[in-house]
Predict the 3D structure of the following.
Amino acid sequence: IRLLLAGIVQVTKPSYTAKLINVPNNCSFVIRELGFTNIVLGALGIGQYFIKDTKSRALISGGLALFISQATVQHMLLGEDLSNAIPDLIQSILLITSTGVTISLYLNEK
């Protein structure tokens, strides 16, 4: 629960978090990205308590891959150098591919 709440604060008030950890306000976009990841990880942690089905867990983890992929889009929309977006793009492709393979294996389990 703490991770989910921390993520919400990081996304909605990145300057507050920047002040807490003594980083410049111009780094708030990084804090916001970390906030999105924290929201997903917190929600997955809470969801794992309630969801016992392995297939459902695999589908939910796919949300993590899509949520992390938003960082790539954000870097590109900010007009940053592509060298900053390439690692995010590679990470997104790997996460989405591994999630797709995991889901297909569980769906064809019988």
